């Protein structure tokens, strides 16, 4: 059984309606799907940035992955949630016809640190099939946005310098929005 990234195994989430829900992540193998889902989404973001595909990796099915559908993304996204160990995000993402009009995102990695992204520090370089923004400072930091049927994901790659301390970067996960409500997407 794999340990949770959160330490004590209990995660607290906001269901989007102001009601907080508790669920177990360590002792029940089914609940670890949420963690695995986030890990796979993060891997997908990294592969998209590198023009690879999940199917290109050895040991992951051997075939080619399905490309991201080229679709119009419309979102007025607001996701603010924190689990019991302090891991969480506070994200604003507005997208109008695949053009990012507002972006503010802070990732909290427990008590270890934060990663902070502001849309003014990025310029949009791609709008289809996924949205891509690159940092204006030339550091190579990329933010990517793509939509699947049940979520719009905002991920990052090469953005260590946007985290304080930089050593927490590998613990900074993507944020996912519900495309219907704009709130935090529910995993599972």
Main-sheet strand order equals 3-4-5-6-11
Mean pLDDT: 75
What is the N-to-C order of secondary-structure elements (H for helix, E for strand)? EEHEEEEEEEEEE
Helicity range of the residues? under 10%
Which spans of ≥5 residues are poorly predicted at pLDDT below 50? 1-33, 39-63
Number of helices: 1
Which structural class should the secondary elements be placed in?
mainly beta
Total domain units = 1
Roughly what fraction of the amino acids lie in strands? 35-45%
Give the beta-strand count.
12
Largest sheet: 5 strands, antiparallel
Rg result? 16 Å
In oligomeric terms, what are we looking at? single chain
Instruction: State the distance separating the first and last CA atoms.
Output: 19 Å
Q: Any idea what the shape is?
A: globular
Structure, explained:
- With 188 residues, the chain is mostly beta strands.
- The protein has one domain (10-177).
- The protein is 9% helix and 39% strand.
- The chain contains one helix and twelve strands.
- A five-stranded antiparallel sheet has the order 3-4-5-6-11, with no helix packed on it.
- Residues 1-33 and 39-63 have low confidence and may be disordered.
Topology at a glance:
Elements: E1 10-14, E2 20-24, H1 33-49, E3 75-82, E4 88-96, E5 99-109, E6 113-118, E7 122-126, E8 131-135, E9 142-148, E10 151-157, E11 163-164, E12 175-177
Antiparallel strand pairs: 1-2, 3-4, 4-5, 5-6, 6-11, 7-8, 8-9, 9-10, 10-12
């Amino acid at each position: 059984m794999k340990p949770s990234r959160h330490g004590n195994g209990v995660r607290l989430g906001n269901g989007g309606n102001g009601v907080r829900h508790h669920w177990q992540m360590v002792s029940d193998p089914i609940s670890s799907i949420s963690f695995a889902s986030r890990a796979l989404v993060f891997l997908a973001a990294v592969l998209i940035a590198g023009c690879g595909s999940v199917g290109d990796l050895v040991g992951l099915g051997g075939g080619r992955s399905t490309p991201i559908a080229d679709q119009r993304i419309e979102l007025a996204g607001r996701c603010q949630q924190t689990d019991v160990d302090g891991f969480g995000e506070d994200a604003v993402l507005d997208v109008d016809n695949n053009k990012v009009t507002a972006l503010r995102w802070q990732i909290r990695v427990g008590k270890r640190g934060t990663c902070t992204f502001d849309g003014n520090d990025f310029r949009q370089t791609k709008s289809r099939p996924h949205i891509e923004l690159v940092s204006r400072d030339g550091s190579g930091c990329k933010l990517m946005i793509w939509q699947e049927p049940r979520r719009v994901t905002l991920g990052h790659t090469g953005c260590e310098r946007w985290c304080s301390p930089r050593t927490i970067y590998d613990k900074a996960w993507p944020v996912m929005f519900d495309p219907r409500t704009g709130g935090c997407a529910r995993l599972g």
